[in-house]
Every structure is written in structure tokens, then in C-alpha cells.
Amino acid sequence: MSVDGTPETPFALNPDDLARLEAIREALSDPSPRRIGRLDQWGLADTYETYAEVAAYKELSVAMADGTLLDAALTVPRGLAPGQTCPAVVLPAPLIGIGHRAYLGMFPRWALGGYAVLAYSQRGLAESGGEIQVAGPQDVADAAEVVNALVQIEGVDPERIGFFGSSYGAGTSLLAAANDRRIKAVAGTSAWGDLFASLYENGTRHLKAFEALVALFGEDRCSKEFRDVIEKIRANTVDEDVREFARVRSPRHYVSAYNDAATPILLTTAWHETIFSVPAVVDLFTELTGPKSLLVQVGDHGNGELPGLAGLLSKPTEMAYRWMDHHLGGHAGDGREPGFDVRSEYMHNLLSDLRHPDWESYVLPRTRFHLADAAPGERDGRLADGAPQPGWSRSVKATGKGTEAVVAPKLVQTGLAERMGLPHVYKTAEIDRGLAAIWTSAPLVQPTRVQGDLEVRVTLTPQQANAMIVAYLMDCDPATGKAAIITHAPYTLTDAEPGRATTVTFALQPAHYALAAGRRLQLIIDTHDPFFAPANTTTQVSTIDIGSPQGAESYIDIPLGTLD
User: Fold this and answer.
1) Hey, which end of the chain has fewer CB within 10 Å, N or C?
2) pLDDT of 9 over the 60 cut
3) Contact, 132 vs 49, CB < 8 A?
4) pLDDT in tens, 303-342
5) Does residue 30 surpass a pLDDT of 50?
6) Whole-structure pTM over 0.85, yes or no?
């Protein structure tokens, strides 16, 4: 759903992308001069002519034990000597209408690197049969059967098999590796760590992302189990069935399996990820004890690897090639060794590239800003250094409608604009202070970076039993009152006693952000965001008081350092 409630398809490819992929598919299936020549308009003719010389391509169906046929494509190196074997990589499809064909742009690199490749669409997706299971136990069993089929192919080394996947394919890859030790390495881009944390954050539904994913799945193709979960999430019914559905589909649940097998795992995500929980990916990474690497980039879900899936350069796919080369013995990468560390870009600079040995050394020490009342003559509160600031209270109206402060005006596309250096501009000076409470810091005296985990503590007194707030940390230009988002998080009080004060402490999404000297940090708390809940014009207007009582003073902890 878009901010105004209209449907959107944030993962859709444009017509030129689809035409290019179809032309590639035809050239692979029939590598004649005429077919390959059509690729000249995209500058790809030489690439696929070389590919056709070194590898054979075919499309096929892989039969599962229950008779379900999975749509797939296979490429195998030509000219292997008798007894010679090659590594293989399996590519479960991302959640997109063309299924496994989204990976066609990667085939030349894998083939030229000496890999056999089997890409497939999970059951219920694209042209595969069966019902959508959402990376459930049936999909994990299917992945094992795909490996069974792969190792029967002459020349494929059963001891050198890896899985690469983007988004939905990343989840399937990780879950398959937890259950099949034949999988010797995994690279998951735009991955998830905990599905429940991606559906619910601090008691709050990620409704907009959920509905966008359901629309892509197509409810008519979903299993009954998933359809039941869809209705429960829409009704905001969180029961054990929903929790168990998410648990068995969460790679974090299988950390001991990864660690026992020392499975090498590469994970990538984005700072402004709106589909899957970034903290859960970080938690998964930190809990792994085997070979591991984490990349966090500017933008949103799928933005970073998109060029790489199309056959161009991207950090996630280049890292994946190196990862597989190191662990499986191919040569698809650039010859460089992979990193076993945390690699990050800061918003909004694509040229930034920082590396730290682990998450603990990556995060900066946190500076505490106390939420203080407004100075005389000012309308907004202050983010104050020094002593706690008790004794104030601010009221905001909960009307079922929000302010201009939102997580992102559009799923995925807003992050893509951020990768182009065009972050959304928030006119925070124009926000209705009756609907939001705002606290602003003094101007920063030098260029500053926010790098790591953040935390907020506030005391809430709602007039209704169920109350939601959303906290946004902004980078504000005091000269214009315009701002860009740094990070955010929601928090929902459920079945609270109306009129009773409750102190809540919750984490914001981690961030890596650079601010210029003279800018101000700005915390905004309001009561509605279409990312988490639909607009509701029938909701009775109520009030939420935000306060700072003695002994439980409100604050925000921000990991700050100077920008070198």
C-alpha cells in the first residue's frame, strides 16, 4: 500500500528490464548469432557470446517427492575432462513475478568462474507448481531435493555446493543450509534474521510491508496455513500459531546448526530497510561463530544488489562471488579475498566504505541526550546534555491520522532515491505540534557521525487501552526547518490502563549517518504512520501524554563521533 492507501508494486521491473531479460533468456536457449546479436542494444552481445562458448544452458522442471514441479534453469561448464568436477551454486528466486529469471544477469559470471548453476523458483512462485509456503519446512525439503538433483549431474562436485539468494531467496538459502550440511557456503542479500521481528516490532505490525509482500505472493497461490496467518496479522491477532509460523522460518532459530557446521555465511542489508528487521540481521550475524561477513548499505530492501543481479557491478554480488570462490574453489570474483568483518556505507554517500572486525568495534559509544522542556519563547523541547530533565509533560492527539513524519513515503523506491543521493525531504517546521512532540538539539559544532545502536526512553500516559507512538530521529537544517530521516522505531502499548503512566524503553533501528556542522538532531514522536497502520478516520480522538517523571527521566541515547 502507498502512503495514501493506493496499491503499489515496489519490486516491479520496468519494461526495458523485462525486455532485456527475455532477450537474454532467448539468447541462452538459442545462442545463434541472430539471438545474441539482439543483445547489442544493451551492450551484452559479447558477454553472452563468451558465455555460450564456456557453458551450456537449459530450462527444466525439477520434480519434488510429491510430484510438484519447480521451474528451473541449469548451466554447466563445457569441456570438463573425465573425472574433473566443478563447484555449484544454487539460486532460489527472489519474490518477483519472473521468479528465477531475475538471476539471468549473473549467469555469465558464475559460468566464466567455472561454476555449475541451478536457479529455481520456490513452489507457488512464477511458473512453479504447488502452494506458497513462505520459506517453510516444505520449501526447505524442496531445497534438499534440488540439491539431490544437482549432485546427480555429471561433473558437479557434491562437496562444493553453495546457495546464493536475494530477499526471499536469501531466506530460503539460509534455512536450507541450516538443514542440509551439503551446503558449504551461503550468501544472502537483503536477508532476514527473524521473521516475527520483521512482522512485529515493539508490539507493532509492519503492515504496509506485509501487505506489499502478500500482494506479490498472490493470496490465491498461498497455502491455507499462510492464508490463516495473513488474516490473523490483518486482525492484529498475535497467537502461538503466528509465532510458530514465524519461528520455524527464522534463521536465528537455527544458529546452533550454523555454528555446529561452521557454515560460512555472508549477509547484506540496508540502513533504511522497510521489509525485514535490520536489528534481527545484526543479531544473527553477531551470534554466528563460523566464517561470516556483514554488509550494510545506503538505501532500502534490494537496492544494493539490484545492479549486480542485472550483470553489472554491486558490492553485494561482488562480495558473493568472492565468498563462493574462497569457500568452494571457483574463480567468478576479482581474485580478492573476502572480508570476514562488518562493512558499511554511511547515508547518503555510496562512495563510503568502512570496515570493522565485528559489530562491537563498529558501534560508537552512545551519548545521552535528555528530553527537556522548551526554552522560554520556543515551541519545541530540547535534546539537552548534562543532567536529567524531569517534571515536564507534552500531549499529542491520536486521531488515526499522522503527520508528514513517516518511515518512508514509498517502500523500496524511497531508499533507491537515497542511493542516488536524493533523500526524502521532511518539512518538520510545518508539522502540526498538536499531533507530534518534537525535541531539537543545539547546532552541531563539527561534522558528526551517528554509528550504531540507539535507544529511547519515555513515559506514556494514554487515554485509550491501546496506543501507538512512532519515534523518528532526523537530521534537521535549522535555517530551513527541513530534515532527512536518520532512523526510527514504533512502540505499541497493548491493553494499557487508560490514564496510567507507563515508562517504555525501546531500541531504534541502527544507523550510520553523517551530519554536517551546524545541523541539529531532532527527535519527533507522533501517533500514526501508514507504514505500521492504515488510516482510520473513525478513530475517536484521544490523547497520549509524554512525560519525564523523577527517577524515570526521558532520554535518547545516540552513538556519536566526529566525522573524519
Assistant:
1) C
2) no
3) no
4) 999 999 999 999 999 999 999 999 999 999 999 999 999 9
5) yes
6) yes
Residue 54 parent element (H or E)? helix 45-54
Instruction: Enumerate the CATH 3.40.50.1820 domain ranges in the chain, comma separated.
Output: 57-338
| CATH 2.60.120.260 domain span(s) along the chain | 366-562
Give the count of beta carbons closer than 10 Å to the beta carbon of residue 553: 22
> Which whole-number Å values give the CA distances from 347 to 144, 212, 417, 451, 512, in the listed order?
39, 25, 12, 10, 6
Grid cell of 376 as nine digits: 522560554
Residue 162 is placed in which grid cell?
553453495
The answer to whether the peptide bond before residue 348 is cis (omega within 30 degrees of 0) is yes
CA distance 485 to 238: 30
Instruction: Locate 301 and state its grid cell.
Output: 530492501
Q: What is the DSSP string of 302-342?
A: TTTTHHHHTTS--HHHHHHHHHHHHHH----S-SPPPP-SE
Q: What is the pLDDT, as a whole number, of residue 5? A: 38
CA distance 335 to 519: 42
Look-up: residue for cell 552481445?
Answer: 45
366-562, what's its fold?
Jelly Rolls (2.60.120)
As a whole number of angstroms, the distance between CA 519 and CA 498 comes to 38
437-458: per-residue pLDDT in tens?
999 999 999 999 999 999 999 9
Instruction: Express each pLDDT in 257-266 by its tens digit.
Output: 999 999 999 9
